[in-house]
Amino acid sequence: MSQQNTRNFCIIAHIDHGKSTLADRFLELTKTVETRKMKAQLLDQMDLERERGITIKLQPARMEYELEGKKYTLNLIDTPGHVDFAYEVSRSLAAVEGAVLLVDATQGIQAQTLANLYLAMEQNLEIIPVINKIDMPNAMIKEVSKEISDLIGTKEDEIIKISAKTGENVEKVLEEIIKKIPSPKGDINKPLRALIFDSYFDSYKGVVAQVRIIDGKIEKGDQIYFLEAKARSEIIELGVIKPQLEKKESLEAGDVGYIATGLKEVGKCRVGDTITKYESTFKDEKEIEKIIEPLPGYKEVKPTVFASLYPIEGDEYPNLRDALEKLKLNDASLSYEPESSNALGRGFICGFLGMLHLEIISERLSREYDMNLVITTPSVSYAVKKRDGKEITIFSPAEMPDPSHIEQIKEPWAKLEIILPKDRIGSVMKLAENSRAIYQSTNYLSEDRVILNYEVPLINIIVDFYDNLKSISSGFASMNYEPMEFRAGDLIKLDILVAQEKVEAFSRIVSRDQAQEEGKKVVAKLKDAIPRQNFAVALQATISGKIIARETINPFRKDVTAKLYGGDVSRKRKLLEKQKKGKKKMKSFGKVDIPQEAFLSVLKKK
After folding, report:
1. Which of 404, 369, 399 minimizes the C-alpha distance to 386?
2. What is the architecture of the domain spanning 305-378?
3. What pTM did the predictor assign?
4. Among 140, 485, 518, 537, which has the highest number of CB atoms less than 10 A from its own CB?
């Protein structure tokens, strides 16, 4: 089919605004999937995505649709809506010419919708505004229409109102996509340039790259070269995604499809890289790089959250390493390096894109690979300047040098954008203030909703800020953040001692003025999470050896005087003294087994 009749588009929206449901209706209307094979959230392939009702991995689908006697090819890329996966969204936007801006009629524009909309506008995409869930009794169609109109300057009557659940007006969206989104502008006669917007590992085909062909043509058996990774391979198979793979003999400019590369390392097939042909006329790789201009926008995905994973059983370490290797093949944004701890043995320090990413990976390790893990308190990377002039980057509290050797510690900051109803401004500002946020500005989205802009230390928003925000705003507020530069701060290491033994998994780097409050919170949680022993267990929070908070887990106590019937009080005292000595001895030799729930309870904030 000609480029003129091809439309490449994606759907951008906040979590739970109905992206996957709208994609289902598209697949039904275009008869891409047979009715008997149709199921809800069809493009969400993972069980976790279905259970949580969120899209984690972007998923392309090629559809055929007829309008006014002409046949059109529609290439849809269903994108995630969570801030942790913003990089996946930016890559899919680079692979299309238009975007459907989907807004929930019951919630209005949310922070992540806004962030994704700005990304789409930067790429000069054609925006088609759509309001979803108009069948809901609490739908605010008029108010949301005005918000969208004010934001992107479109007329209110041009905004399509649909219900993705019932299918009402969904056909109008397909018609608008064909009428408004321009056809691809690539040149089939130019040298091949293909953008990788996703990749995964297949045990038979090697690394499979999902690509948008920008210029040129590619055929099965062609030699290809990855400009950024500087890797070569031969194409084993190529085709389109409907959403199941369908083999083709060739792909050309304007097409969205897949290339089975035969590579065994997903690291060589990076999202955002440019693929070109390795022609026999080229002398070497340097000549290719001179002739072929890479597609814009490639950047390394940098993790923002770090946590260590340790197997509960020491002999499970090789299995954990194998499991992480396999996960890395499907998720190039995961990074990991081996590390060891005196208390926890051998494990891995892992880098994640955010807390949801950490949760998803730990859940997949548990389900798919049957791993029982200890997860240390999530942290961010810190830049530490030592007194001898050396600068080091640390990813966990365990790597923190002795305080006497530290001249300065820098922590990463982020731009924070919160969208909320104006009657919640006071409580949200208080939350931001408690998170060391610096207020920047307030903008009005509509009469009733505002955007608050802050700069805030990244560590203060990655762990529990989102949950607290949802709680105090009754679910009406939403947030988006973008990492900034590193800034110097008054930071110290907080250690937790259980029965006089330091447990590295509970250590964290905190602001000095929040250390005492943080210490109290942790020991209070551990008191509830660690089972009682036959001896008293002291839980202490310390800074440089100084105790700043303490709780005690009371011991079980056997009634040793139950067998006494009267007699002198000294007999009773003698038995109690004997019991006391036994408890003291137990305390010296007794070991406290900390259950997995205790580690998780410290991670999960209120």
Report:
1. 404
2. 2-Layer Sandwich (3.30)
3. 0.72
4. 537
For the chain, the farthest-separated pair of C-alpha atoms sits apart, in whole angstroms, at 107
For residue 133, the SS3 value is: coil
CA distance 606 to 602: 10
Please report the pLDDT score of residue 33 as a whole number: 67
**CB atoms closer than 10 angstroms to residue 593:** 9
> Which DSSP letter does residue 303 get?
P
586, amino acid identity: M
Asked if the 383-489 domain carries CATH number 3.40.50.10490, the reply is: no
Q: Per residue in 499-514, pLDDT tens?
A: 888 887 788 888 888 8
Q: pLDDT tens digits for 336-380?
A: 888 887 667 788 888 888 777 888 888 888 888 888 888 877 888
> What is the reported pLDDT for 41?
46
Q: Do domains 383-489 and 492-603 have the same CATH topology?
A: yes
Pick the CATH number of 193-291 from 3.90.1200.10, 2.40.30.10, 3.30.360.20, 3.30.300.130: 2.40.30.10
The residue ranges of every structural domain in the chain are 3-180, 193-291, 305-378, 383-489, 492-603
CATH of domain 3-180: 3.40.50.300
Round to whole Å and give the CA distance between 294 and 274: 6
Instruction: Convert the pLDDT of each residue in 287-329 to its tens digit.
Output: 777 777 777 766 666 788 888 888 887 788 889 988 888 787 6
- Residue 182 CA to residue 96 CA, distance in Å, equals 10
CATH fold, domain 492-603, is: Alpha-Beta Plaits (3.30.70)
